[in-house]
Amino acid sequence: MKAFKKSCLAPVLVLLLLLIGSYSFSQEKDTNSEEISLVYTVDHKDLKWHPAPDFFPGCSFTLLHGAIEQPNLDLFFKINPNTEVINHTHNSPERMILISGELEVQYENEEPQIATVGSYLYGPSNKPHKAKCLDKGPCVLFIALEDPFNAEPIIEKD
Predict the structure, then answer these.
(1) pTM for this entry
(2) Can you give the pLDDT at residue 140?
(3) ChrR-like cupin domain location, by residue (predicted)?
(4) Among the listed residues 90, 81, 72, the one whose alpha carbon sits nearest the alpha carbon of residue 140
(5) Which of 79, 93, 84, 85 minimizes the C-alpha distance to 127?
(6) What is the pLDDT of residue 132?
(7) HEC-encoded secondary structure of the chain
């Protein structure tokens, strides 16, 4: 019986030490964080709106968190009322929430869908899609990207 207790004791001690070590590391990481929290509305005075790529006329964007060339980027994307966003793709999946307006979205081989304020949208990476901000605009989307931003237009063949 003593041999059994001793053979079980070593793995338990190792597990306990690992748990204590990871707990102290996570506590240290949390208390030393220099990152600040953020709260933005679409019309926040500190946001700088930039024109979208030329193939998205009538559109603009502002960075909320991260850098355009880095992964894990959050942004607002604004589309003027009655403006079409041409068929395009992205390397990154997109997670989106419509903040304002009414947006018709269509992904390749799918029926068009209408997103209203508060709608969640998910766009798979590299799947062609297009959109149109309807007349209840402007349409503002919150977009979270896993990979650095890119957008590639799809040239329609006649």
Answers:
(1) 0.77
(2) 98
(3) 41-145
(4) 81
(5) 93
(6) 97
(7) CHHHHHHHHHHHHHHHHHHHHHHHHHHHHHHCCCCCCCCCCCCCCCCCCEECCCCCCCEEEEEEECCCCCCCEEEEEEECCCEEEEEEECCCCEEEEEEECCEEEEECCCCCEEECCCCEEEECCCCCEEEEECCCCCEEEEEEECCCCCCEECCCCC
What integer pLDDT is reported at residue 137 of this predicted model?
78
Q: Looking at residue 35, what is its pLDDT?
A: 86
CB-based contacts of 122: which residues, under 8 Å, 6+ apart?
93, 94, 95, 96
Q: Tell me the C-alpha distance between 112 and 41, whole Å.
A: 28
- pLDDT, mean of each 10-residue run, the chain (158 residues): 51 43 47 82 95 95 95 97 96 97 98 98 98 94 96 84
d(CA 149, CA 118): 23
